[in-house]
Amino acid sequence: MALTVDERLEELWEEEPGLGSVLSTVDHKSIGKHYIYTAFAFFLAGGVEALLMRTQLARPDLHLIGPEAFNELFSMHGITMIFFFVTPMLFGFGNYFVPLLIGARDMAFPRLNAFGYWIFLFAGLFMYSSFLIGRAPNDGWFNYVTLSNHQFTPALNIDYYTLGLVFLGISTTVGSINFIVTILKLRAPGMSLNRMPLFVWAILATSFSVVFALPSLTMANVMLELDRRAGFNFFNVAKGGDAILWQHLFWIFGHPDVYIIFLPAVGIVSSIVPVFSRRKIIGYLWLALATMTTAIIGFGVWVHHMFATGLPTLSMAFFSAASMLITIPSAIQIFAWLATIIAGKPVFKTPFLFVLGFLFVFVIGGVTGVMFAAVPFDQQITDSYFVVAHFHYVLFGGAVFPIFAAIYYWVPKMWGHLLHEGLGKLSFWLIFVGFNLTFFPMHILGLLGMPRRIYTYHAGLGWDGYNLAASIGSSVLALGILVVLVNFLLYGLRRGAPAGPDPWGGDSLEWATSSPPPAYNFVEIPKVQGTEPLWDQPELRDIGFRARDVEMTLAEGHDTMGTTVVDAEPESVLTMPEATYTPIVTAFGISVVFVGFLTLLLPIIVLGGVIAIGGMMAWLRPKELPE
Amino acid sequence: MSAVEADPGRTGSRTQPTGLLAGPGNVTGGKSTAWWGMVLLIFTEATFFAILLTTYWYIRFSHGPVWPPDGIEKPSLFLISIMTPILLLSSAPMHWAETGIKKGRTGRLKVGLFVTFAMGATFLIMQGFEYHDLVKEFTPRTDVYGTLFFTITGFHGLHVLIGLLMNMWIQYYAWRGRFTAERYTHVEVVAMYWHFVDAVWVFILASLYLAPHF
Ligand code: HEM
């Protein structure tokens, strides 16, 4: 019996359903969904921590939570949001959509992709297991020495922090390398660099930032752990070490990390704006360049987190200038989006509302950011609630609004059902109002002198009303997030109207295949001729399920196409690996190693090492020669 | 709904897209994805070493004129002047092995890998002897100099060890005949890693061993 091409592809690419496939899958779409589910769970955990803090701070002189617990709450809140929510969430979208956007059948390294996910999950569980023994990290999310030295925090709290972040770093690094190679080598023929969707540009820039920035954080944590557990002297001033070294290493990573968080979010905005403005994006080239320059300048500004440490004036002037410089690409981006919206015919659906919310919030965050770049202002206001307000405007505004926009935009593609528009709008307004009510008063609190990281305050300082407002705001915000969740569980998963391949009239390739896409993504690998393939090339609109050119279906094996780096000329046929348990076994072994380092039990370390190396050897072994 | 019917059965002859080469594994036109992956891994790893060496210089310059401090002797150049050439030259047989297998010469592959392994292992053993002597004088706990010295050389030693393990692993498959003139990605990638570990040593040598003498 003759198989049609799509049946053939189905047979080649489909993974057996069931628990086994959850553990062994290498399909970028399943892995992307796993990332998104897990990251959202961490978002809820971090949100609960935030609500607890806001409850404690609602009125003066409350004692619902003691100072020690409060320290653990803000530390874990920051760590969770920065490391275990935003980046993994954006990586989840990246995983799901980068291959679809570039017309490929999977990521370049599908097994490495699965491995990265498992490491992320295990590292998160590792970090959160600290609550079980009541020893969660408690020195803030940037964990400054000397407070975090053995001498001042002898218990395991900080060892969870250092080991947990080194552990998680493995995931982020391999994920980024995977993105870079995928984007450079697996783009559909014709999709030269200057035709890549802006979201893909953003993921590329972010991934390069990770490759060069993350080692600094990892190394700093290794050094601190050696100091704490083995008596090394990196940060021990008495033996010639240097405490400011931690701050340098942390912020060499930390500031690029702001852009690691922010760039993919910007990429989401650049994808959504043209679709809902019903016209091509204005200034494509400028946006792509701005993405790359932001990533590069991001490496030159770390010292602006340290203006209060007493560095030489000249070096402060340099970093101050660099910090102001970096606002230029951001301004370019904002003008390009605004121009596109104004020149288009905007349709105000929920994803677009979140984008507009982002623009509003982000501009305010940017304005307070420029204020900090002025050294004298920074020295006055550092470590006050003004800072808390600023970075929530930037992080929540800059990353979480776009993430919600992405949820509303892409969930119909991923699960095949439209979300409820009324609930969508409701959730937007709750989140928007709640957000501003929570964080705007914090600017004023900061100017009134309220320091950050205090667990309570006395009445009569003029802070009470603003704090109450912030606490009420955070409940409104939480309600809005709940509505998103309900909308997803009720409509996104089941009840929503069928989305069809292209509910929004999109311009990029993911809309050319069914929702959810088949395991092989597209029946035929598309040939791309412009930046908006679906708008320019009507023949591509059904490339997901109809084959015109058998040669481009690559239905002979489990294959996708490799192309050249710049021009995306066809170069090779890449045979992709099948589902396997080796990634999860390797990741499990590595987890055991980290537990061993935490408990300092050599047998556990050795056991974990053996499992991890065994898993890796099985995974990477050269295939047998064909007959 | 598909417009085209494919040939029945999966073992039929491969029809390849025009201009594309069929390839076993990932090596066809251009560099393999694994090659790109290794390039990026090396970028990350190089950044690790750069951070360690920057830390070393940062602390050295903020530490005052006497370096090494606390009466520690300047690093001896005797052992190192034997170890260094051995490590650096070990890149040659590795390269020879790699170019060999690209021409299908499995014999060259096996010999080259083995010689590289022997040279790398010699380096590591000599480093062991060096440590054995040094810890009588100072350890990582003594002061920040000891910390830096042992961390940086130890981190490099760890990389040599990983390189040796990978070498052993592909030797095993070389003996089982898994590599041919068309299928050599594993060898190519391991060789690149080995060259990197060698090259990094030059910077460590210059910063930790030579610079204190000037
Ligand atoms: C869901 C709504 C959120 C609320 C109500 C909230 C509230 C708070 C509060 C009350 C603090 C403690 C301030 C202090 O005592 O110094 C805080 C700290 C922090 N938040 Fe949030 N936050 C939210 C979301 C986020 C998000 C989405 C991010 C990041 C993407 C984030 C990142 C941080 C960071 C980095 C800190 C600093 C932790 C530290 O001091 O070490 N927050 N937040």
Taking pLDDT < 50 over at least 5 consecutive residues as the criterion, the unreliable ranges of chain A are none
* Element-by-element helix/strand order of chain A: HHHHHHHHHHHHHHHHHEEHH
Summed up, the domain count of chain B is: 1
Stretches of chain B where pLDDT is under 50 for at least 5 consecutive residues are 1-27
Tell me the number of strands of chain A. 2
Write down the oligomeric state: heterodimer
The secondary-structure class of chain B comes to mainly alpha
- What do the pLDDT scores of chain A average to? 90
Total of DSSP H or I helical runs spanning 4+ residues of chain A = 19
Helix percentage range of chain A: 55-70%
Count of distinct strands of chain B? 0
Give the termini distance of chain B in whole angstroms: 77 Å
Shape of chain A: globular
What does this structure look like?
The complex is a heterodimer of chains A (627) and B (214). Chain A has helices spanning 5-13, 19-24, 28-57, 67-101, 110-132, 157-185, 198-230, 244-277, 284-297, 313-325, 327-343, 350-373, 375-381, 385-415, 421-447, 464-495, 533-536, 582-599, 602-620, and strands spanning 559-563, 570-575. In chain A, a hairpin with a 6-residue loop joins strand 1 and strand 2 (570-575). The model of chain A has no long low-confidence stretch (mean pLDDT 90). With 627 residues, chain A is mainly alpha-helical. The longest helix of chain A is centred in the first third of the chain and has 35 residues, at 67-101. The two termini of chain A are 27 Å apart. The relative contact order of chain A is 0.12. In chain B, helix 2 (80-89) packs antiparallel against helix 4 and helix 2 packs antiparallel against helix 6. Chain B starts with 32 loop residues before the first helix and ends with a helix. By secondary structure, chain B is mostly helical. Chain B has helices at residues 33-62, 80-89, 91-102, 106-137, 144-175, 185-210. Residues 1-27 of chain B have low confidence and may be disordered. Protoporphyrin IX containing FE binds next to helix 3, helix 4, helix 14 and helix 16 of chain A.
